[in-house]
């Protein structure tokens, strides 16, 4: 018979395994998002050629632009719906529901006869991706133990970048229909696993289902249903029940829910973090890597460099997991901003020299290195933390709403920035934009240092106290009503 300490250790280890497996299962949806975003890169060449699988023949450049842009339209709608859906039906049911549009999108791709099929499919896929980006961090944050939260929070970036790499390879080397087949398999695996998972303890408490919340916490902490909670888990459950963010909550939101100095600061931080994908230049650099390399004067196989950049992203995503595990969120975020700032400045200098008419033929490796790092670091470290951190610092009741709102603004900005970047770059040059992105990263270092708290190993009430320390005393409340 196991002694009590050994039994507690076994439960703890089993609980961590359950949490990692649950987060990894949910992360299958971020892999699908990577497929969605990367599928167009190799598919466009095929779709515009005489070997196109479409019965209507090769698609036009306008069709390509519309197909790319419509994904962000779907993302906007999905982000708007996600917060409401997560609060209305729960976190796990939301993710199960949101996989359906992704399935519809790839069925349309697999059966496409004209560009119209592809346009509609991108709206469906964008809707699912935009909504899942909202719900996934909330789900992971609410099921995770404090010691694991940083690690599983980084699954989003790792899954997305891994999906980008696999999606490009499948379409490039497996053919047009390889990616849809892989998506169908992944969706099947996800549904089988996820349909058996309970909802998060926080959501169940929010619905006044205390008994179900207790069972949920026991499940995610690896405690058999018939056993009593160990003292540490019982204490965690008591803290959840008594948390200001969960006590006496009503289903509907009010202006009162957004008041309080710590809450307002958390909202400001969330808006800033969700600006990262656009203002670090990440979306533009990923979308136009090949064109930027050509304009830089670099003489190389740009298609091969595209794969190299994606591999760099995956490697950076893998490395960011132990970094966040050891150091938490705050310190790595400062370092990631600083590294991105340096290499964006270098990229800007290279473009400026090329734009001035100097021969940079022998210095192509500089722009490749700087762009690879400028894509990899924001695309993995910065963005992973930017998605995970708001789910930890925002009050539960407004969490879905605020994250949805910030993502909607981010998707709208992405639509216009990607659509008009080259028109503006032709007027001002690529160099100015690299320096604008670098400036955002520079301010990111300052804002993170001054405002962002370290959440590693802390519960929500402790995080609120840290937020309170970063605002003037007259704006603080004796008890934050979150």
Automatic annotation (TrEMBL):
Membrane topology: Multi-pass membrane protein
Subcellular location: Cell membrane
Single GO cellular component term: plasma membrane
Alphabetical list of SUPFAM superfamilies matching this protein: MFS general substrate transporter
Sequence ranges assigned to domain Major facilitator superfamily (MFS) profile in this UniProt record: 19-456
GO molecular function terms listed in the Swiss-Prot or TrEMBL record: transmembrane transporter activity
UniProt KW GTP-binding keyword: no
Keywords carried by this UniProt record: Cell membrane, Membrane, Sugar transport, Transmembrane, Transmembrane helix, Transport
A Pfam family hit: Sugar_tr
Keyword Membrane: yes
Main localization (coarse): membrane
InterPro entries: MFS_dom, MFS_sugar_transport-like, MFS_trans_sf, MFS_Trehalose_Transporter, Sugar_transporter_CS
Domain of life according to the entry: Eukaryota
Transmembrane segments: 20-44, 64-86, 95-117, 123-140, 152-170, 176-197, 253-273, 303-321, 333-353, 365-389, 401-420, 432-452
PANTHER family with a match to the protein in the record: AT22075P-RELATED, PTHR48021
Listed name of the protein: Putative sugar transporter
Origin species: Nyssomyia neivai
Source taxonomy: Eukaryota, Metazoa, Ecdysozoa, Arthropoda, Hexapoda
């Amino acid at each position: 018979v196991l002694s009590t300490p050994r039994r507690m250790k076994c439960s703890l280890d089993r609980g961590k395994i359950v949490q990692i497996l649950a987060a990894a299962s949910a992360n299958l949806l971020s892999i699908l998002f990577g497929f969605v975003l990367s599928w167009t890169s190799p598919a466009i060449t095929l779709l515009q050629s005489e070997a196109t699988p479409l019965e209507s023949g090769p698609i036009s450049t306008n069709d390509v632009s519309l197909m790319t842009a419509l994904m962000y339209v779907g993302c906007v709608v999905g982000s708007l719906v996600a917060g409401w859906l997560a609060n209305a039906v729960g976190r796990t049911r939301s993710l199960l529901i949101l996989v359906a549009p992704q399935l519809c999108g790839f069925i349309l791709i697999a059966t496409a006869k004209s560009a119209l099929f592809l346009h509609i499919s991108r709206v469906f896929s964008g809707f699912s991706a935009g909504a899942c980006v909202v719900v996934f961090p909330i789900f992971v944050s609410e099921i995770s133990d404090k010691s694991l939260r940083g690690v599983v929070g980084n699954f989003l970036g790792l899954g997305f970048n891994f999906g980008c790499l696999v999606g490009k390879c499948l379409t490039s080397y497996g053919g047009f229909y390889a990616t849809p087949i892989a998506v169908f398999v992944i969706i099947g695996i996800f549904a089988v696993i996820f349909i058996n998972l309970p909802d998060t303890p926080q959501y169940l408490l929010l619905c006044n289902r205390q008994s179900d919340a207790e069972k949920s916490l026991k499940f995610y902490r690896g405690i058999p249903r018939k056993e009593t909670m160990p003292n540490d888990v019982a204490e965690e459950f008591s803290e959840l029940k008594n948390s200001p963010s969960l006590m006496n909550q009503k289903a509907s939101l009010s202006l009162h829910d957004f008041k309080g100095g710590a809450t307002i600061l958390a909202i400001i931080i969330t808006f800033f973090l969700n600006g990262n994908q656009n203002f670090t230049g990440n979306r533009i650099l990923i979308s136009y890597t090949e064109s930027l390399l050509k304009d830089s004067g670099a003489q190389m196989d740009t298609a091969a460099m595209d794969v190299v950049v994606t591999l760099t992203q995956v490697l950076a995503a893998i490395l960011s997991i132990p970094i966040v595990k050891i150091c938490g969120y705050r310190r790595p975020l400062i370092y990631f901003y600083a590294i991105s700032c340096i290499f964006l400045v270098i990229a800007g200098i290279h473009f400026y020299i090329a734009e001035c008419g100097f021969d940079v033929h022998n210095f192509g490796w500089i722009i490749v290195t700087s762009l690879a790092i400028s894509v990899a670091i924001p695309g993995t470290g910065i963005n992973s933390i930017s998605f995970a951190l708001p789910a930890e610092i925002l009050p539960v009741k407004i969490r879905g709403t605020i994250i949805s709102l910030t993502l909607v603004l981010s998707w709208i900005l992405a639509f216009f920035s990607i659509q008009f970047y080259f028109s503006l770059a032709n007027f001002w040059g690529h160099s100015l934009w690299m320096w604008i992105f670098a400036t955002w990263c520079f301010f990111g270092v300052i804002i993170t240092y001054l405002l962002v708290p370290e959440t590693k190993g802390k519960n929500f009430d402790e995080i609120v106290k840290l937020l309170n320390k970063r605002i003037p005393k007259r704006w603080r409340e004796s008890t934050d009503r979150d």
